[in-house]
TrEMBL record:
Name of a matching Pfam family: PH_9
InterPro entries: PH-like_dom_sf, PH_9, PH_domain
SUPFAM superfamilies xref list: PH domain-like (SSF50729)
Protein name per the record: PH domain-containing protein
Domain of life according to the entry: Eukaryota
All residue ranges annotated as the PH domain in the record: 1-57
Positions in coiled-coil regions: none
Amino acid sequence: EPIYNIGMQNVKAGLALDYRKKKHVFRVHADGFQFLLQAQTSMEMIGWIDSLQASTNIALPIEERKLPKFTPLSRRYRQMFYH
């Protein structure tokens, strides 16, 4: 049974660049708390951060959701990779 439930609204996840004791550590801010979590690999860490950010995007009420930020590929790159 969980000790504490954390709502995904307003959760922030990112790299813990200032933490150097262990590898693949990322930081999660939620409900006024800060958590340092460690993944096995850098790819797993990035996957966790992406998943946490994605769940935060869909946890907000529709009126408060921001459009995801992305950079579209130029026509040249699309032609190189998709043809």
